[in-house]
Amino acid sequence: MRWKKISDAVVRRLPLYLRVLEEVSRDEDRKLMSSQELGERAGVSPALVRKDLAWFGEFGKQGVGYEVSYLRDELRRILNLDEKIRVALVGVGSLGQALTRYNKNRTEQDRSFNIEIVALFDNDPSKFGKTIEGIAIRPVSELAQVVKELGVQMAIVTVPADQAQVVVDAVVQAGIRAILNFAPTKLVVPEGVHVASADLSLELQRLAYYLDD
Amino acid sequence: MRWKKISDAVVRRLPLYLRVLEEVSRDEDRKLMSSQELGERAGVSPALVRKDLAWFGEFGKQGVGYEVSYLRDELRRILNLDEKIRVALVGVGSLGQALTRYNKNRTEQDRSFNIEIVALFDNDPSKFGKTIEGIAIRPVSELAQVVKELGVQMAIVTVPADQAQVVVDAVVQAGIRAILNFAPTKLVVPEGVHVASADLSLELQRLAYYLDD
After folding, report:
1. Helix B68-78 crosses helix B8-27 at what angle (to 10 degrees)?
2. Contact indicator for B59, B71 with CB cutoff of 8 Å
3. Which residues of B touch A72 (CB under 8 A)?
4. B62 pLDDT band (50/70/90 cuts)?
5. Tell me, what's the ipTM?
6. Which residues of B touch A180 (CB under 8 A)?
7. Chain B residues 118-147 with CB within 8 Å of chain A
8. Mean pLDDT over each residue of chain B, to the nearest integer
9. Which of A82, A204, A211, A213 to mutate to test the interface with B (most CBs of B within 10 A)?
10. Where are the domains of chain B?
11. CA distance B108 to B103
């Protein structure tokens, strides 16, 4: 609530900072880090690091730097990662399955990665009851009920483009307000619902621009 | 060359415009489109549409709008999508396989999607010679040779984080200058090489920020 006006560009960089701080506190037992070094390792200018973090409080001391474990914990809190976030994935095709495995590995390798796929949905009856990484595939019609039961807060959508809007409507209807969308289409959602696009085709097309440099 | 100074934020939006124009020219046989409508369908303000496109030329006519097929073709040319771009994927785990299938579907469903995975690489000998969607998996040691033979210009990297930098060094060494990286780690590349991050963990963490709105 407090930070409503903070731009998405700032929010986008917070996980980069968090990753550096987690690496450093895990691998190097470091106590302090300068904005210079944090910036270098996150791929962001030191001035921007200081500006971004200043939105959320006074974390650094001039000439001393940031306390690594304190800033890490604060960033985890700001990003709501201090408690486990439960995720539903809708569309258990090959991409959906790969993401489920990927997430399983990620959460096993890193206990502090608190974002976990806990429910899978599809509309193909031949998949119902099968499991991926121990998670049963259920019909989309059970979405609202399961979201409530399991306390799901986030959804990953990996359905074909022509089904994405219908699925997202159901996801929003079920009370989910943060969606990672892999379908190559623009989605319409009510205010207060956040959609991040992981449209790989768009990323590839953007990269192509740089080929004739 | 001509457009060196154009910011990545502008480049990022070009594929969004292209997608709208392709949908419209395919499904609706439309001749003209206003910046208002193009913006609405791409999720960008009309003023920003006009500003973005003005970097590349005078495409629209005041009060008339953009010629759909002309602007579509120009955007394809600007994004280097008027000729086929060949892609190598390194790291044929479950995510790599899913992306290969996804790309195959995409290129089959849309003939104008000119970005095609043509070579697969891994470092696990038990995978060598196996095929995914008809594409043989080869050892990473053959990367440079295959890139040259097949005219590969782009790479998708889906290896674990601790192998990503070594793989990317080999990719760059082979002459590739555009990389889509799925490994959850920052990569160091020489100037002139572009890396787009498709780090799903970062996207999920960013979305988590909005959960307590």
Report:
1. 140
2. yes
3. none
4. confident
5. 0.89
6. 200, 203-204, 207
7. none
8. 91
9. A204
10. 8-78, 85-203
11. 8
Over the stretch A33-77, which tens digit does the pLDDT of each residue have? 999 999 999 888 999 999 999 999 888 887 889 999 999 999 999
B85-203: CATH topology: Rossmann fold (3.40.50)
CATH fit for domain A8-78, picks 1.10.10.10, 3.30.2000.10, 1.20.1180.10, 3.40.1180.10: 1.10.10.10
Supply the DSSP symbol for A116.
Answer: E
B46-to-A28, B11, B35 alpha-carbon distances in Å:
49, 16, 5
What would the mean pLDDT of A156-181 be, rounded to a whole number?
95
CB contact under 8 A, A211 and B19: no
B191 close contact with A: CB closer than 8 A: no
Q: Which residues 43-72 in chain A show a CB within 8 A of chain B?
A: 43
- Across chain A, mean pLDDT equals 91
pLDDT higher than 70, residue A110: yes
Chain A hits for B7, CB-CB cut-off 8 Å, are none
Whether the per-residue pLDDT at A5 is higher than 90: the answer is no
Chain B residue with minimal CA distance to A205? B15
CB atoms within 10 A of CB A162: 9
| Distance from C-alpha of B75 to C-alpha of B59, rounded to nearest angstrom | 10
pLDDT exceeds cutoff 60 at B75: yes
| Pick from A25, A112, A113: nearest CA to A69 | A25
